[in-house]
Structure prediction request, 358 residues.
Amino acid sequence: MSSNRDARLKRLQYNLLEWKIDAALITSFENIRYISGFTGSSAVVIAAQNKVFFLTDSRYITQAHDEVEGFKIIEYKKQIDEVVSLLKKIKAKDIGFEGNNINYDYYKKLKNFLANRRIFSLTEKLNAIRIKKDAAEIEIIRQAAKIGAKGFDIAKRHIRDGAVERDVAIAMEFGMRKRGAEKPSFDIIVASGKSAALPHGRASTKKIKKGEAVVVDSGAVYKGYNSDETCTFFTGSPTRKQKEIYDIVKDAHDAAIDAVMPGVKASSIDAAARGIIKKAGYGKYFGHGTGHGIGLLVHEMPKISKFDNTMLEENMVFTIEPGIYMPEWGGVRIEDMVRVTKSGCEVLTRVSKEMTVL
Prediction:
């Protein structure tokens, strides 16, 4: 087993003792991959305080033996039957599971088959094991960001008067895949003109026009890890209003990045960005959080929002992405990924956030 995976597993088993539970039933692909290194799409991990089991079906049993070390590997025909049998066999009485990952029928079967045992959701606690990235993860995320930056280089070459939003997104995806991306982190956003007022607008058949702001939000998946970055470009000289909005968002983005350091609450980073936008009179046009954790999932812990008081620690990785979205006018968003360092943060994304006219 690699030293990274071994450390992750030991940390999980230590947490089981701290949480006072006998076993954790892990079913989400991201947590299974994080703990075991398995990259397939059908498996279950049962982690006890001194034993770990990897369960999969016949389609993945060879792959499991290739990728998974340090676990007892078990092939199942019916997953729920094998899970219940094993939990009974190891005499687990207090069992945690991922409540946001199994459906109601699966939960009912667990309850029925494991009568007289305590089963409860550990979703937040299990997801929190991934909140701080190790050196190997950070290097992979850096590479994902590097590949993602190539997508923006392609976008800059394609965005022009008359270009179709969807064509820009397709060219970006093709270029990132050629450079090593497994896939985009999400459906690439290319939103121009009034469409830029939609925070999660999709690339459409709309033609980009001269004088519009174009919000491009993209990322690359590399070795399972995501990048996430947003630039707002302008086709032709921006108007005074466009410059004003861009400068406000850029100031909010920079203030949030400057505020990042260990010991600061996630909500304080949100407040740094939100305060600038609110002071400029556009507070009602910034409706989402300032950022989110990123790793094996695009959205992880911590949330950089006014509702999350997580204390930042070194090697947490998250986005900073304030925006202003005005219906019938358009919008601006500027986003970078950062890693918390001992005295501040490292910006992991690579594209300049200075105003760019194409």
